[in-house]
Structures are given as structure tokens and as C-alpha cells.
Amino acid sequence: MGGRVCAHLEARGHSVGRASRGAGVDAYTGAGLADAFSGADAVVDCLNVRTLSERKAVQFFSTTASNVAAAARTGGVAHVVCLSIANVHDPAVSRRIGYYAGKAAQEGAYRDSGAPVTVVSSAQWYELARTLLHQLRLGRIAFVPHMLIQPVAADSVAAVLAEVVEKREVQASLIVAGPERRDLVDLARRLAAVEEPSARVIGIPGLGRAVRSGGLVPRGTSVVDSVRFEDWALRPWR
Ligand SMILES: NC(=O)c1ccc[n+]([C@@H]2O[C@H](COP(=O)([O-])OP(=O)(O)OC[C@H]3O[C@@H](n4cnc5c(N)ncnc54)[C@H](OP(=O)(O)O)[C@@H]3O)[C@@H](O)[C@H]2O)c1
After folding, report:
1. Does 122 sit in the ligand 1 pocket, CB within 6 Å?
2. Is the Cβ atom of 218 under 6 angstroms away from ligand 1?
3. Residue 22, pLDDT score
4. Would the CA dihedral through 232, 233, 237, 238 be positive or negative?
5. Which residue stretches of the chain have pLDDT < 70?
6. What pLDDT does 182 receive?
7. Can you give the pLDDT at residue 92?
8. Number of Cα atoms under 13 Å in the Cβ half of residue 77
9. CATH number of 2-234
């Protein structure tokens, strides 16, 4: 997502710096953050840690949010934009997905820091269908968990983040989703038809009734993007 946001901002004529460990900046230890933020008008937090452990997710997201907020304050950055996920505060969902507790802790750390933060919460991205199509495989058979979601193209979310940056001021939290509610298994089947016709997708129960039956569908969505899954799946540049 960070790369997509940079591309959108650069296409709109902004000068953009990329801060990641690959670029010598570690948001977890704080190393290099001050230099990276020097002279910036805005910082967009698209950090991620790949874990299912609630403890690791909470530690990573709360620490990095505190470090980013402190470095932004020191550097005089006027606006921090934090990318989160819709419904991370819903206990029916977060008790099944430890990672969500980390995202809730991230939002909490930003709020507690007093930094000028806008939280943009996104529904699941269409790209998740591809990840899950490849994650649990037995040869040509892909096992994909049932989840009712209202997914959105990652690139559309990047465009929203770029617009929030351009507004140059803190806004009330935004929730971004796509145009349709869909079961992830159906999305994986449709993507397989385009990208791997020999694959067979089998639906499995997944992460509990709340997640299966709409607990991830955002409530009070403020931006409903118009790009449909089938159109996204057929776009070679997606
Ligand atoms: N996937 C979804 O459907 C979805 C939906 C809504 C919201 N989100 C949120 O979107 C965010 C971005 O997700 P993504 O899939 O784009 O993540 P990603 O592909 O895993 O990228 C994470 C980025 O964070 C950097 N990073 C990790 N640890 C770092 C550290 N200690 N210091 C500095 N940089 C660090 C990584 O670069 P280096 O490795 O070089 O450091 C990488 O550039 C996440 O917070 C996620 O919760 C995702």
C-alpha cells in the first residue's frame, strides 16, 4: 500500500519520500524516523507486520504508532494519516483475529499521542482473494475460508489516502469499502477462473460465525468505491 500511495501522490505532483527498513528507517526502534520526516507536510502510516499473534501485533502497532507520532511532533509534521481496517474494534471479530487487536492498539496509540491524525479504515482488499487462493493448497485444490466482506481495490484505497493527504488537515475517521458484499470463496473462484483455471476452490468454515456472516462488513461507510471485483480481476495493470 505504501508504494501505491507514493505513486498516487507523485502522479499528483508531490515530492514523496519512502521510509522503510529497506530504506534504512525502522519505525519499531525509531531509527532514522526523524531524518525521514524532516521537512514533510504529512506522513502516511502504511506499516505492517505479518503475524496472527495478538501479542506481537499489539506490540508492533502500538510501538510504531507511538514512535511515528513522536517523530512527527519533533519534525513539525502537520498531519499523520494512519491506514487501519474497518471493524477492528468489534470484539466479535477481533477475538478471532489477533492481528485486529494490534490495529485497534495502533489507533489507540495515535489517539493517546495527541498527534494530528486522520484514521482511514479500509475494508479487505480484492488482493486478499489472490493471497488466499495461494495460501492453503493441496496441489490444484485451494482451501479458502468463507467470509462475507465488502472488499475494495487496494489501488482505490491508495487514491483515497492521497486525497486525504492533499486536504492538509485532520479529518474525522473515514471508512472505505467497495460496491458489493461478497463471499471470499466466490471471489477466489472468480479470480481462479481468470488466473489459474485448473485450480479448484473449496470453501472451508474459516474464522468463526461472526467473520463468516458479515462481521467484517464495514458499518457507516463514508467512501464506497465503484470498481467491481470482476472489473479489477480483468485489469492487467491492477
Ligand atoms: N490487506 C488488506 O486487505 C488490508 C485492508 C485494510 C487495511 N490494511 C492495512 O494496510 C497496511 C499496509 O498493508 P500492506 O499489505 O501494504 O503491508 P506490506 O505489504 O506488508 O508492507 C508493509 C510495509 O511496512 C514496512 N515495514 C515493516 N516493518 C517496518 C519497520 N519496523 N520499520 C519501517 N518499515 C517497516 C515494510 O518495508 P520493510 O520490510 O522494508 O521495512 C513494507 O514497506 C497494514 O497496516 C494493514 O493492516 C490491509
Report:
1. yes
2. no
3. 95
4. positive
5. 236-238
6. 97
7. 86
8. 27
9. 3.40.50.720
Atom of ligand 1 at shortest range from CA of 128: 3
Model pTM? 0.96
Q: Which of 228, 19, 46, 229 is nearest to 122 (CA)?
A: 46
Neighbouring CB atoms inside 10 A of 172's CB total: 7
Q: What is the per-residue pLDDT across 178-201, written as a single tens digit (0 to 9) for each?
A: 999 999 999 999 999 999 999 999
Residue 144 grid coordinates: 479458502
Domain ranges of the chain: 2-234
Q: Strand 200-204: give its sheet, edge to edge.
A: 137-138, 141-145, 200-204
Q: Characterize 177-212 residue by residue with b for buried, 16 or more Cβ atoms within 10 angstroms of its Cβ, and e for exposed.
A: bbeeebbbbbbbbbbbeeeeeebebebeebbbebbb
Among 120, 121, 123, which residue's Cα sits nearest to residue 150?
A: 123
- CA–CA separation, 207 vs 145, rounded Å? 7
- Look up cell 477462473; give the residue: 193
Q: Take atom 35 of ligand 1 and give the residue whose Cα is closest.
A: 20
Give dist(CA 109, CA 228) in Å, integer: 34
Residue 21 CB–ligand 1 contact under 6 Å: yes
Residue 94 confidence (pLDDT): 83
